[in-house]
Amino acid sequence: MFAALANIFRITELRQKVVFTLAMFIVFRAGTHIPVPGVNVAMIEQLFQSGNLFGLLDMFSGGALSKFSIFAMSITPYINASIILQLLKVVVPTLEQWSKEGVEGQKKVTQLTRGGTVLLGFIQALGMAYGLRSAINNPGIMSILLIAISLTAGTVFLMWIGEQITSKGIGNGISLIIFAGIVSRLPDGMHVIFQYLQSGTVNILNVILFAVIALAMIVFVVAISQGIRKIPVQYAKRVVGRKMYGGHTSYIPLKVNQAGVIPIIFASSVLMFPVTIGQFVDIPWVKTVAGWFAWGTPLQTTLYVLMILFFTYFYTAVSVNIAEMSDNIKKYGGFIPGLRPGKPTTDYLDKIMSRITLAGAIFLALIALMPNVVGWITGIEGIYFGGTALLIVVGVALDTMKQVESLVLMRHYQGFMK
Fold it and tell me: Which spans are transmembrane here (predicted)?
């Protein structure tokens, strides 16, 4: 590992990419401390001391939401716009056609994503400003508009930073911004544990147990994230002109966790909606319903697991086109040993995908419930470890590491003469 790190700084181009990425991180962290004009930050911070929804969103923004800074919405509108466009590809033929047109088509999709980010960001910013109007110094239409424009501008600036990291730095810029926001909360979590130790709420054995469970969870997430089912494909020999093609064996890698972290985000958003409404609406029956969906209640936990299972299958079905995969195998003269090309191949791939998706869905449900289990076992609560955060951190770290390794390998390639 240390040799790999040393290689990064020996290569000028790679060193410049790393330095640029770190510089963008500094800009991102500096922006989390610039408050939106016209708000009472002290009143807003009180809201984040009660409620897992606000705490979870604050973790993704790297603490910017609790400070109500210009980066309070983080990059969430961009992610929502990207997910909506990906789902629309199934029902809008034009979007599907653009996605197959290479660079030019990707530019069109990117422009739509940017426009959707601005629109969704402004709508979300208006909702946040109106919902938190009690914390505005001079509540009024102009103040709410000013806050909404400031928050939207912050999200657009983060989107630009992410694109700059992707083009001039290392890794996917949008993912790295979320990664930086989550990792930046680790010192606060360690401080909370230290306060627990000082007050006698927990002892050193609880902390050691917490560390062991955390390490085991990381290993488990890495193993499942890297897990694939290899489907062997045999390509027949064919002659084109004077050249012979094919005659080799390959495989199709089907990921166990094909949906990634999206099902947890969808399920959390749906279940947190009643809780959010209950915090801003002072109606008795609304408060009662919101209490049923409070984090950790039996109803919430049961629905949470069922929704994760549903959204895992739904998103996998949308993102993985089994019929198209089967057609591509047939088009290039391939076949799965023991199966005829066409419908038998499609049915077989669909059956395999359904089985491994079930394993991935159960894995996501377990990871999503782990924070509650860890808090119950160790007595250490108030630390958002596990679930969405852990999947994002591990996934982004693995992808970035692969990109660094490929760049290092490319620069150190010795050629055929040696």
Answer: 18-36, 68-92, 112-132, 144-162, 169-187, 207-228, 260-281, 301-323, 356-377, 383-401
